[in-house]
Amino acid sequence: MHFAPGSSRYYGADVTTASVMECQKQLIQEGYHNFVPVPFKVGTPETVLNVITEPIDLFLCVYVFCVFPTKAYGSRVLDIAYKMLKPGGQAFIEIRYADHTPISKPHRWGYAQNMPHMVTYRIEEFWENAIKCGFEPQLVTLEIEQEVRMGRRYAYYLLTKPA
After folding, report:
1. Which stretches make up the Methyltransferase type domain (predicted)?
2. CB of 38 within 8 A of CB of 17?
3. Beta carbons of 60 and 46 less than 8 angstroms apart
4. In the chain, N or C: fewer CB atoms in 10 Å?
5. Which DSSP string do the residues of 45-78 spell out, in sequence order?
């Protein structure tokens, strides 16, 4: 809700329709009516481009890249973010990073039990992926452990689409 007062419109895209509808419900209860829910199927994230047709200023994505099924899927979403942003727009993306310890490696089994550990990136790997998509990385900040106990080794990237 932090962004609601300063936004003329904002979108919530998710594979779970119930999640985006709950977001809309809560925002309406707070008096914000400029939220557009964008549910999509896991296999076709590109369909959001059919709904979000006007360029956006900010792409905000936290606690999502780590639950994607593969890094290739993450690259697809990064490309979608780039396409949606207006020139000069920014993406703020959180990932889980690998630090060469066994525990930081992705767990490619038991999705329900290991959901936040499905995909991890090396710091420079995600930075380079962003550049390949056309972004200009501005900064990365690391958080070894989150206060809310969601896990360890999170990196936050601020990326800009060139003007």
Report:
1. 8-93
2. no
3. no
4. C
5. GGGHHHH--S-EEEEEE-S-GGGSS-HHHHHHHH
Give, in order, the Cα–Cα distances in Å from 58 to each of 87, 98, 150: 11, 26, 24
In this prediction, residue 147 carries a pLDDT of: 65
Beta strands in 71-135 (DSSP E): 85-96
Is 36 in contact with 27 (CB distance < 8 Å)?
no
Map tokens 């290991």 to a residue: 114
Residue 73 CA neighbour count, 13 Å, CB half:
15
DSSP state of 15: S
Contact 137, 131 (CB under 8 A): yes
Range 55-163 classified under CATH 3.40.50.150? yes
Q: What does the domain layout of the chain look like in residue ranges?
A: 1-49, 55-163
Rounded Cα distance, 85 and 21, in Å: 24
> Going by C-beta distance under 8 Å and a sequence separation of 6 or more, which residues neighbour residue 33?
27
List, in order, residues 6 or more apart from 106 with CB less than 8 Å away.
98, 117, 118, 119, 120
